[in-house]
Amino acid sequence: MNAQAAGPAVRRLADWSAADLADLADEYGTPLYVTDLDRVRENATRLRAAFDADTDDVDVRYAVKAHTGRAVLETVRESGLGAECASAGEVVRALDAGYDSVQYTAVNPPAEDLDVVLDRWRDGAEVTIVAGARDTVTRLRERGFDGRLAIRVNPGVGAGHHEKVTTGGHAKFGVPYDRAAALVDDARADFDVVGIHAHAGSGISGDDLEAHRELVSRMGDLARSVGPLEFVDIGGGFGVPYREADAPLDLDAVADATKDALGPVDATLAVEPGRYVVADAGVLLTRVNTVKPVDDEGSTGSVPVVAGVDAGMTTLLRPAMYDAYHAIRNLTDQRPERPVTVAGPVCETADLFCEERPMPAPRRDDLLAIGNAGAYGYEMASTYNSRPRPAEVVLDGDKVRLARERETIAGLTALEVDR
Ligand SMILES: *Cc1c(COP(=O)(O)O)cnc(C)c1O
After folding, report:
1. How many angstroms separate the alpha carbon of residue 271 from the centre of ligand 1?
2. Can you tell me which residues form the catalytic site (predicted)?
C-alpha cells in the first residue's frame, strides 16, 4: 500500500496543532467541532489496504451514522467506501452526497422510513435493504419492493466496550441465527436476495478477537448453507484507542482473522466500520468559563478543581451515555497538574467530560480540545436545556471551511406553532 496515503495507525490529540486549533476557536467560536478530511481519507485508505479491498474484492462500507456531514460523506465516497445507512434520513443524505448505491439496514423501520427509501428506489437509486425481521420482509413485500434484499442475522455473540453498544446478542437486532436460512430461502421467491448481514456491536479490539472470530465463522457457516450470495456483511465495530496509552487496532490482524474465520464462501466479504473512519479525524474545542476548587476557596496545590466549559453532554454525549473516556488537552497553557473535573453547563450530574483527571489546572478562558470526537459526536448532539448545537468546520489540505453553522436560540423555537 501507499504508506503516505494511509497515514499513521492513529492520530492522537497531541498530534493536532494547538496554534491552528486556537485560531479556529477565535474565528468560529466555541464549542466547535473540527473535522479533518485528510485524516478521513487516511483512515479509509488504511481500511481498504488492510482488507486488500482492491485485489480480494472486499467491500468496505462506511456506517454513515458515525458522522453524516456532507463533506465527510463526499470524502468517504471519493475514497472508495460504500454507504451503510440506518434510517431514511441517512439514505437521503448519502444519495444527496453523490452515492448512487446505498445499503439501508432497517432496524424496526417506521413506515415513513420504508416509504421514503422505496420512493428513492423507484426513482432509480440502487438500494440494498437489510431486513432484521420476517415482519420487515413482509412489509417490504406489501409495498411492492422486489429489489436487493439482505437478511440481518442475530449471531448470538456480541463485541463491545459497554453494554449499550453491544448489539450482537440482543433480540432487537436481526433474525435468530437458526431461522435465518429459512428466511433467506423464502425471500428468494420475491426478492433479489444478495446477502446476509450481522453486526455485533462496537469495540472490536486487538487483544480480543475471539468474539469477532466467532461471529464471522458463524456467518461463514450460514453462507455456505444458503448457497451463492453476492456478499456476507460482518458489520463494523472496529475499535479506536480513546485512551492515549491504548495501542491502535492492528487492522491487518483484524482483516486476517476475519478472512480466516470466514473460510471459503461463494460471496464477497463486506465490512461496515463507522467509528474507525472518523473518530480520530475530529476534535471538539471548548472554552473554560468557570473554575471552582471543590472547596470553592481558590486553594491551590492538590485540591481538585471543577472546570466549567461551554460544551456539555448536549454537544458530546458519549461520556454521559457510555461512560466513554475522551482525552482532553489544554491548548492554552501548561501549568502544574491538579485533579480536574471538566463539566458542562447542563443541569445533569452526568454532564461531565472527566472526573478528577490529573491535568494542567485550567483557568478561565483557556481553550480545551477533546479528542476522538469525530465519531458519534455531532451526530448525537441535542438541544436539551435549549442549547443550540455547535458549529463544525472542516479542514481539507490547507483549506478551512465552515461545514455546519452554529444553531441559534431563535432556531430552537422555529418549529413551535403557537408563538
Ligand atoms: C453502528 C453500526 C455500524 C458501525 O459501528 P462502528 O462501531 O461505528 O464501526 C455498522 N453496522 C451497523 C448495522 C451499525 O448499526
Report:
1. 10
2. 347
Tell me if 361 sits within 8 A of 340, measured CB to CB: yes
In three-state secondary structure terms, 120 is: helix
- Closest residue by Cα to residue 290 from 390, 387, 365: 365
pLDDT confidence tier of residue 343, bands split at 50, 70 and 90:
very high
What share of the chain has pLDDT > 70, as a percent? 95
Per 3-state DSSP, what percentage of the chain is helix, strand, and coil (rounded to 5)? 35, 25, 40
Q: Is the pLDDT of residue 144 over 50?
A: yes
The letter for the amino acid at 287 is: R
What is the distance between the terminal CA atoms of the chain, rounded to a whole angstrom? Answer: 59
Instruction: Write down the pLDDT at residue 162.
Output: 47
For residues 168 and 215, the answer to whether their CB atoms sit within 8 Å is yes
For ligand 1, whether the C-beta of 270 sits within 6 Å is no
| C-alpha closest to that of 194 among 266, 133, 114 | 266
The Cα 123–Cα 137 span in angstroms is: 21
Is residue 348 marked as binding? yes
Neighbouring residues of 207: CB distance < 8 A, sequence distance ≥ 6 = none
308 three-class SS: strand
Domain segments of the chain as ranges: 100-273, 280-413
pTM of the predicted model as reported, rounded to 2 decimal places? 0.95
Mutate to test the pocket of ligand 1, among 84, 129, 242, 271 (most ligand atoms within 8 A of CB): 84
pLDDT, tens digit, 9 for 90 and up, residues 150-189? 999 998 864 444 455 555 567 888 999 999 999 999 999 9
Here the cell at position 191 is 426478492
> Under CATH, what is the fold of the domain 280-413?
Lyase, Ornithine Decarboxylase; Chain A, domain 1 (2.40.37)
